[in-house]
Amino acid sequence: MTHELLAAGFGGQGVLSMGATLAYAGMVEHKEITWMPSYGPEMRGGTANCIVIVSDERISSPVVTRFDTVIALNQPSIDKFEKAVKPGGLLIYDSTSTLIPPTRTDIHLLPIAAGEEALRLKNTKVLNMIVLGAFLERARIVEIGSVMQALRKALPERYHHLLPLNEQALHRGMELAGEPAMA
Q1: pLDDT value, residue 182
Q2: 79-89: b (≥16 Cβ within 10 Å) or e
Q3: What is the 3-class SS of 74-122, one letter each residue?
Q4: Nearest-CA neighbor of 35 among 66, 5, 72?
Q5: CA 18, CA 129: separation in Å to the nearest integer?
Q6: What's the structural domain count of the chain?
Q7: Residue 15: which CATH number?
Q8: Domain for residue 183, yes or no?
Q9: What integer pLDDT is reported at residue 129 of this predicted model?
Q10: Which residue segment(s) compose the domain that 143 sits in?
């Protein structure tokens, strides 16, 4: 099993930390991983994306141009990366921040109202964990327990009080991804 993912959004949305958490979770499960971040010079508000590959086999190259899954947390990311999803692949996007939904018919689309859900959880910083949970529900490449173990290692100890909220966000994302789409 090899899964190639691109996650993209504005700086400050947790795109890079979402990708790093997924990569760490793969390491917890003794899988081969790559994590390749890309971001503009701005600390917040600029664009950010990362490529994550998780595999049971050796990864020949971290450079990928077509992905099994693209996660887009804003409209510019949908516009830029919708075409990078392999036919039959998955595009997960935050429907809260989307003005023009994706139009491809040869891929699976998963709109998640992650922004609204983060507000319901009273912390907008868990938007990335909601979307990661939705991804894990669909892709099943690592276990949620491995993600939580990765978060415990990756998050500075001063943020460990937020681990239960992050776990709640992951589970909520999984629930949303399992719900049938509205007609």
Answers
A1: 42
A2: ebbbebbbeeb
A3: CHHHHHHHHHHEEEEEEEEEEHHHCCCCCCCCCCEEEEECHHHHHHHCC
A4: 5
A5: 7
A6: 1
A7: 3.40.920.10
A8: no
A9: 97
A10: 2-178
Task: DSSP letter for 182, please.
Answer: P
Closest CA to 102 of 129, 128, 84, 120: 84
Locus of tokens 């892709």: 139
Q: What is the pLDDT of residue 45?
A: 62
Query: Model's pTM, two decimal places?
Result: 0.92
The number of helices, as runs of H, and strands, as runs of E, in the chain is 6, 6
Long-range contacts of 81-84 (CB under 8 A, 24+ apart): 81/6, 81/8, 81/49, 84/6
Average pLDDT by consecutive 10-residue portion of the chain (183 residues)? 95 91 97 91 73 96 93 96 97 95 96 96 95 97 96 90 96 89 42
